[in-house]
């Protein structure tokens, strides 16, 4: 376009620049070939609005990342004619290497079952055990007996975990311990020889 000003009219101002560097950049931008990357979201339930984007050979690129309920996105992959697969991006949609295909391509999303932390928390707010559970599965009850520090007037005995262990785990979950509260001190009553009340201490 810096030679005849016919490629992109909006770059006409650069074509008139006296700077050779500006002219070179302008011409490069007008003659660079962009390649189309089309996205197969493989059943994404959200975030699949972007159908394709354009990239340049030799440059890293970013891609959209969809959402699929119950799954985690691991990256965009390309399948060769022999069915071998090449990973193009990480789980954030950022290319692993600069784009190297001088052609339009279609990539597909790879999903794995989501895994969640289930934290068992004692009466002091401390996590005493963490289990990793697949999406949609149940978590086994912790066999640890959690404690709770006594107060000035109360002590605590563990009753149970405050959770329905038949429920499916669909997200990271905190399960808290339940306790029975008991007076830390007891009243002691003193009676005289005639079985009459004498005094009481705690």
The tally of helices reads 2
Strand order of the largest sheet: 2-1-5-3-4
- Choose one word for the global shape: elongated
Order of helices and strands, N to C?
A: HHEEEEEEEEEEE
What kind of assembly state do the chains in view correspond to? single chain
Structural class: mainly beta
- Helix % is under 10%
Radius of gyration: 33 Å
| Amino- and carboxy-terminal Cα gap | 97 Å
- Residue runs with pLDDT of under 50 for 5 or more positions: none
Largest sheet: 5 strands, mixed
Share of residues in strands? 35-45%
| Strand segment count | 11
Mean pLDDT: 87
Structure description:
This protein is mainly beta. The chain is built from two helices and eleven strands. The strands form three sheets. A five-stranded mixed β-sheet has the order 2-1-5-3-4, with no helix packed on it. A four-stranded mixed β-sheet has the order 7-6-9-8, with no helix packed on it. A hairpin with a 5-residue loop joins strand 3 and strand 4. The longest helix has 12 residues. It is elongated. The termini are far apart. The model has no long low-confidence stretch (mean pLDDT 87).
Descriptive labels:
single chain; 202 residues; mainly beta; five-stranded mixed β-sheet; four-stranded mixed β-sheet; 2 helices; 11 strands; 38% strand
Question: How is the topology of this model organized?
Answer:
Layout: H1 12-15, H2 20-31, E1 34-40, E2 52-56, E3 71-79, E4 85-87, E5 105-113, E6 115-121, E7 127-134, E8 154-161, E9 173-183, E10 188-191, E11 197-201
Parallel strand pairs: 1-5, 6-9
Antiparallel strand pairs: 1-2, 3-4, 3-5, 6-7, 8-9, 10-11
């Amino acid at each position: 376009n810096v030679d005849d000003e016919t490629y992109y009219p909006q770059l006409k101002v650069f074509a008139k620049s006296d700077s050779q560097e500006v002219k070179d950049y302008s011409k490069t931008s007008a003659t660079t070939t962009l390649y189309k990357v089309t996205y197969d979201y493989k059943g994404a339930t959200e975030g699949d609005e972007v159908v394709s984007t354009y990239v340049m050979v030799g440059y890293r690129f970013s891609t959209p990342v969809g959402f699929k309920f119950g799954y985690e996105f691991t990256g965009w992959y390309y399948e060769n004619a022999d069915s071998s697969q090449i990973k193009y991006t990480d789980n954030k949609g950022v290319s692993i290497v600069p784009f190297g295909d001088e052609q339009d391509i279609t990539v597909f999303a790879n999903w794995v079952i989501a895994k969640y932390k289930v934290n068992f928390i004692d009466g002091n707010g401390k996590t005493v055990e963490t289990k990793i559970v697949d999406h949609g599965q149940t978590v086994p009850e912790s066999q640890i007996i959690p404690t709770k520090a006594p107060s000035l007037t109360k002590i605590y005995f563990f009753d149970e975990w405050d959770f329905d262990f038949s429920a499916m785990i669909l997200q990271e979950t905190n399960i808290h311990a339940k306790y029975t509260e008991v007076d830390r001190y007891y009243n002691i009553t003193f009676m005289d020889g005639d079985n009459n009340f004498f005094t009481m201490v705690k």
